[in-house]
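Sequence in, structure out. Go.
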Amino acid sequence: MPSRDVPTRILLIRHGSVGGDGVLHGHVDVPLTPQGRAEAEALARGLAGEPLAAVYCSDLCRARETAEILARRHDGLSVTADPALRELHMGLWDGRPVRELLAEDGERLRKWWAALETFRIPGGESLSDLSARAVPAFDRIVARHPGETVAVVAHGGTNRVILFRYLGIPLSRFHVLAQDPACLNRIAVYPDGNAVVEAVNARP
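Output:
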């Protein structure tokens, strides 16, 4: 039984690069680019010495590919995919370039930008909706692995709402925190629920 002073250490990772700069990918299932796979390989090399007990990921291809590359460096680890860790659902805007949306649906896009926390994209989610599904999924992972080190590979939006919960940052300030492709965030979650964010948007 782990000590009450021993935290669960979460390596919260964003997937590697995908194609289509300026596109709102959301739930569109796009694969990693060659650059994205190279980023994931570099991340995996840097984390090869971590004592990982498990690897979790969003079920979208870009997160799953990144997680599988990471898991290969840790003998015997399989990847557990969880749809609750998906990126923000962009609804009617999924897969659309921002440039096109500005021309065709600019007023609504600007309303979304001004009220990210509460504005629900047509057919999709608000940031509050994303937080309501992703944070409990994260908590379930922590609860399964007391005192262990676990990797969670998700998305820029998903990672932000999880980090904001511990950093005390409101969802309305969504873009104040960068999440680069294949970046690493470290969170130590203690048995009493307190947590320390040890690194944000870092490299191994």
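Check: The radius of gyration is 17 Å. The mean pLDDT is 95.
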